[in-house]
Amino acid sequence: MKKDEVIELLKEQIKELRDDNNRLLDQIDDLIKEVSSLKEALLQK
């Protein structure tokens, strides 16, 4: 495999990992909002 091919492969892997990371961060944000909402509901009882 040529150096340029390895670089392109690594760039693609980095892009996929960043996309995965962004999806996970979005899920974390959603979970934080849900936990906050549940906590607020419990405190109002």
TrEMBL record:
UniProt entry keywords in alphabetical sequence: Coiled coil
Coiled coil recorded as keyword: yes
Keyword Coiled coil: yes
Taxonomic superkingdom: Bacteria
Coiled coil regions, renumbered to chain: 7-41
Annotated protein name in UniProt: Transposase
Organism: Phocaeicola vulgatus (Bacteroides vulgatus)
